[in-house]
Amino acid sequence: xxxxxxxxxxxxxxxxxxxxxxxxxxxxxxxxxxxxxxxxxxxxxxxxxxxxxxxxxxxxxxxxxxxxxxxxxxxxxxxxxxxxxxxxxxxxxxxxxxxxxxxxxxxxxxxxxxxxxxxxxxxxxxxxxxxxxxxxxxxxxxxxxxxxxxxxxxxxxxxxxxxxxxxxxxxxxxxxxxxxxxxxxxxxxxxxxxxxxxxxxxxxxxxxxxxxxxxxxxxxxxxxxxxxxxxxxxxxxxxxxxxxxxxxxxxxxxxxxxxxxxxxxxxxxxxxxxx
Length: 275
Ligand code: C2E
Ligand code: CA
Ligand code: CA
Ligand code: CA
Known about the structure:
By secondary structure, the protein is α/β, with parallel strands linked by helices.
């Protein structure tokens, strides 16, 4: 029972619909999972298209739920963002990714996704600094991926944060390019090192002329602005061949590997090279 503020009590379950209850359970579960160390960072290789070399791994969060098994981020990140738990979760990912990457060959970078909530948190610079110091990882090996939604509001504060990160040596990628409120002016207003072309354009490469045109435009833009372009969600050789022809810098996708645990990184580094 819970006081409703007017001195009367009611059972708060009765006023709550099933969805709200499920949410509350998930939130409690999330907090407990952080305590119990149930989160794990998986890695997916990113290859240089021209040489075939693995140049980086993207860190992708997984929840090892004792009853429900491995849970993908789409099922818990939105709630973690609403409740603010994403800040703690994000710090866990940063620390894990930097620590893991410190043991990889030093020409292999690590990319970490930042939630807009985490990006706006006053702790961000301190958490990045702390993760780098604790792991001993060279800041130049860390890439932070942000989405266009971060750029929408308070561009002054955003710009300051981006400049601070880059001054540390960290690189910034614009994730899911083409899906949000893509504006070419972002590329001029904000300092990006890399554009990640969203999977939806890659998956429609063979069937839609306009997807091909968009990829051609983005890779061309990247080339002239000196920004690396990475294609996401590359699943077959035909897509890779088209990307190579358009001069896309890097490729990532199931064609090379699904995201796997840190213990599989050595195997993924040795995996099949591009032809
Ligand atoms: P994203 O950053 O766009 O990550 C790429 C997603 O595409 C990953 O899904 C990856 O497993 C999937 N993927 C990679 N290659 C292929 C492919 O060839 N085909 C297909 N169909 N899918 C592919 P995942 O791991 O489920 O992550 C989903 C989203 O959750 C990520 O999208 C990212 O936005 C978010 N996320 C993951 N980890 C973190 C994290 O540590 N922090 C934050 N804030 N968000 C995260
Ligand atoms: Ca990403
Ligand atoms: Ca993406
Ligand atoms: Ca995405």
